[in-house]
Amino acid sequence: MKTKLFFTFASLLASVSALAQPQLGKDSVDDVIAAMTLEEKVEMLHGSRMRMAEPKFPGAAGFTTAIPRLGIPSVHMADGPHRLVISPSRAFDSNVYNTTEIPSELTIASSFDTDAAFKAGELIGQEVSDYGLDVLLAPGVNLIRNTLGGRNGEYYSEDPVHAGLMASAFVNGIQSRNVGVALKHYAVNNQETNRNANDAIVSQRALRELYLRNFEIAVKRGDPWSVMTSYNKVNGEYVCESRFFCEDVLRSEWGYKGLVMSDWNAGRDAVKSIAAGNDLLMPGQDKQREAILEAARNGTLPMEYIDLSVKRVLEFVLKSNSFKNFDYPNETDLKAHSKIAREIAANSLVLLKNDNDALPMTDVRNVALYGTTSYDIIPAGMGFGATGHGYYCVSLVEGLRKAGYDVEKSLIGPYQAHIAAENKKNYPNGMPPFSITAPTRADEFVPTAETLAANAAANDMAIITLGRANGEGADRRKEHFYLSEKESELIKVVSGAYHDAGKKVVVLLNIVSAIETASWKDSVDGILCVFQPGCETGNAVADVLSGKVNPSGRLPQTFQVNYGDAACDNDFPCDYVFDMSAFTRAYALSAKDAAESARRQVEPELTKNVDYTTYTEDIYVGYRYFSTFGKKVSYPFGFGLSYTGFDYELVSSSMDERNCSVTVKVTNVGSKAGRDVLQVYVRAPKGRLEKPSRELKAFAKTKTLAPGESQELTLGWETSLNASYNEKKAEWELAKGVYSFLVCKDAESAPLLEVSRKLR
Ligand code: BGC
């Protein structure tokens, strides 16, 4: 009896004290923080992936720590940008959790259509919400500095305005579904070689005008729930440990109020990261927790810093579905999403060449496919951020067949056998189920002259697909920019055989980022750059080849003639082979240090482009260099053809202290319906600082215009976007004088329209 009474009293006390404890959402965040022990506060500052045996969402990248007594749940985060990355199956139920592989960021960027980026975000945000997660670790908005960058496919553009506007539309799309993003990888994350330690040495001017501007636009226009700091150092300091990046620029200058989290296992010094304003260390390590606790106890890490970061984590938790106990359906409308993915992909393909109306394939019925990639299409990149392949991918053969074409059957078997033999040679124990870097692809296969002659007689056209895969943790090498001997041979012999038979040859570029095109483009009739179009690749490509969709994509990066032509090419690890074995997913800080010291034994000196990379090209990245210094390119930034033609009329333009704008009337003067893209570049007056000859300030895309139809487009930007950063004075400088607004088809060709406005 006595014991029973005691237990009743004890449980009463426990529930009273539980009731007395502040609860997140009911009580103020400050009250909740005040009720936390130091240990609990520190738990909030790192993820707890490694401490849950059975995660709620297998395959998701990480989650924050829950403290049930204070009503704090975990927030669940999964990778993107191309797909919500969760395991399709779970040990604890029999459901299937498939997610849609949308086109890569670089592919969507080619649409030059912010509505398409918004729709892509909306689609993927819906899947995040439908499956009950909280945050997609995307988008990446870093600049494409070098054509060999390993993660170029996960980024948008070589131009910061283009990248920033596309990224903010994607962020707005995702966050419209009440889930969050982690805008990544802040900042200057432009190479994968030695990515955990590389130091990017970059001027303040290039930093401000290029490498931060993309983030600034995305932060200000997208208001992301969180920003993910990058692995690399900038000017000697890890970004996640830098107060300059995390506080001074992001928060004080740009007014960002959200959470800052680290990339997975980034940086070396957990205490320095928290002191810098990098609130959350992901995915979280015991060593980090111990270091922060010790620094808090001995006073080297002030409690205000800890409380401030805990507050930001709790505000992040408050927004989440997990906190709101959202009753998610646990299934998503994959069919509807495939349809949207196909539309976005078709809207993004870039027609680079179309001699004598080789395309669309209106008079074609029988088509022969060459190139191993024609039979092993690359829908997406590899790696955690790039996500590997989704649950299905429409092959090129399937897409063309569904569009009504007969695909040459006699080539399919030999190509498939060749690819299987090559894979066996490269991977005797079977293809890896998942790989962070791109697996070695089958070498090219060149059919015999007899086969080609027979194919050319039996078919109306040839398609050759060239492929380049990518992944995380490694950059491409110079040799991947160029065609292999067999690829060049293939183009030569296929073009020879088909042209002899009076037939046309079209090349598809299924690539992560630009490759060499100048030496062979004259041998073929058409070139369609498809980048990595996602699960609907075959359908989207067939839509454009057949003319069902008129191509309207534009290049988000320059296709240079040779490697070495771009101003940054010598300051990039184009030949260096980095030992990836040191980089496994699960490395701990100590393992990272061990890997580093092992390398030091082989390479005692700091290695250029590996340990540090000097951005000697300064502000001359991409077209800024080629157009200013008159260097020839194969295809310029912004380039893309259509099956119809357009005419332009200047309606109005304006410039005052705050805003600039140009209004243009676009008319479809061709015979097919289609969409057009307008790009406005600015030529600034000669001020005290030198400037590129033109810089993109705005772009816009028409709706589908029927032949004869017109649309007025107004392209506007803030006048401050015309300013340059004076690093001696550490301030922006807006030169007075005449500004020319150049309405252009791309970054190289003469303007379609030009108008000058004076700033007094
Ligand atoms: C990548 C991030 C990714 C994270 C979580 C890292 O290796 O750099 O882009 O979000 O892993 O998987």
Secondary structure elements and pairings:
Blueprint: H1 2-20, H2 29-34, H3 38-44, E1 62-63, E2 76-79, H4 105-110, H5 114-130, E3 135-137, H6 160-175, E4 180-186, E5 199-201, H7 204-211, H8 213-222, E6 226-229, E7 233-234, E8 237-238, H9 243-253, E9 259-261, H10 270-276, H11 286-297, H12 303-319, H13 321-324, H14 334-346, E10 350-354, E11 366-370, H15 396-402, E12 406-407, H16 409-426, H17 449-458, E13 461-467, H18 478-481, H19 485-500, E14 504-510, E15 526-529, H20 537-546, E16 559-560, H21 589-602, E17 612-614, H22 623-628, E18 633-635, E19 646-655, E20 659-668, E21 677-683, E22 695-701, E23 710-718, E24 724-726, E25 731-733, E26 737-744, E27 753-759
Parallel strand pairs: 2-3, 3-4, 4-6, 5-7, 5-17, 6-9, 11-12, 11-13, 13-14, 14-15
Antiparallel strand pairs: 1-2, 7-8, 10-15, 16-18, 19-20, 20-23, 21-22, 21-26, 24-25, 26-27
Helix pairs in contact: 3-11, 5-6, 5-14, 6-8, 14-20, 15-20, 17-19
The chain binds beta-D-glucopyranose (BGC).
Residues 61, 79, 137, 184, 263-264, 384-385 line the site of beta-D-glucopyranose (BGC).
Q: Bound compounds, please?
A: beta-D-glucopyranose
- The number of strands is 27
Q: Counting H and I runs of at least 4 residues, what is the number of helices?
A: 22
Whole-number radius of gyration?
A: 27 Å
Sheet with most strands: 6 strands, mixed
Segments where pLDDT lies below 50 for 5+ residues? Answer: 1-7, 582-589
Structural class by sheet pairing and helices: alpha/beta
How would you sum up the global shape? globular
Mean pLDDT: 93
Straight-line distance between termini: 92 Å
Q: List the strand order in the largest sheet.
A: 1-2-3-4-6-9
The proportion of residues in beta strands is: 15-25%
- Please bin the fraction of helical residues: 25-40%
